[in-house]
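Two proteins were folded this term; both appear here.
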Amino acid sequence: MIALIIALVITVIGIVILGVDPYNFIIECVGGVSALVGTVVVLCMIMAIIFAHVGVDVRIEENKIEYDSLCERYEIITSEYEDVSKSDVIKDIAEWNTRVHGYKYWAYSPWTNWFYSKRIADEMRMIER
């Protein structure tokens, strides 16, 4: 959210600078570059926000499937049957927990919260070992 606001401010400042002195080439260049860069960054951020919030239900379901699979694998290695390598399961669970922690962190960070779906973050659960 804050990153988008900063990009919008840069765009507005560039537009204001363009109108300050139309006869000064350097001011025109600075204003034009900042307005152009700010506009491009804002458009890219808006596209990223849209992509982050489209297909949320599918990603939630995929995360649930992966979570259930990892929980079942963990139950297998804790039982008397050892069909799967313990180190692989522990590594996969650690990667899952790292991904969950990172997603939740960025979904609730004021700098990036618009780029992540809070619905997905709330649905993701850590696997307790």
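Next, the second protein.
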Amino acid sequence: MPVSPTPAPAVLTAFRCASALVCCGAIGLLAGCASGPESHVVSAPPPAPTSRAPTSTTTTTTPNVVAPGRGYAATGSQVVSTTVVTQTPPAPQPEVVLARPTPHHNWLAGYWTWRNDRYEWVAGHWELPPYTGAQWVMPRWEPQGSAYVFTEGYWY
């Protein structure tokens, strides 16, 4: 009677582990295939379109300013633009004021403006006044009834 060789213990252990993994995998697949309640994803409907799209109008004017030391009204060299929008302007963005380039530069803070039918942020920056003693009038949004009026900034 021929004697069959006995497998090494490591081979037997590997075979048993592989068999156990195959059985566990089969059980896992069968458990995953069990029928259960169907899942339905429910999402909110898209927001309704606004009843009134933001509208805007823009007018331009040339401010009359009193010429320094002259005592009479002079027409300013800059055109001032006024925009009326029916949408509330966003809150100002925080800014980091960089080092002043020269003692003559003035910091012009950032602001929201209305361009291309939406609000756009204009970052603050240092600027040289157009002449000695010139003062900067900040751009501003002011509520007016159900609208907001924007007036561009200008030097005087």
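The radius of gyration is 37 Å. The first strand starts at residue 56 and ends at 61. These notes refer to the second protein only.
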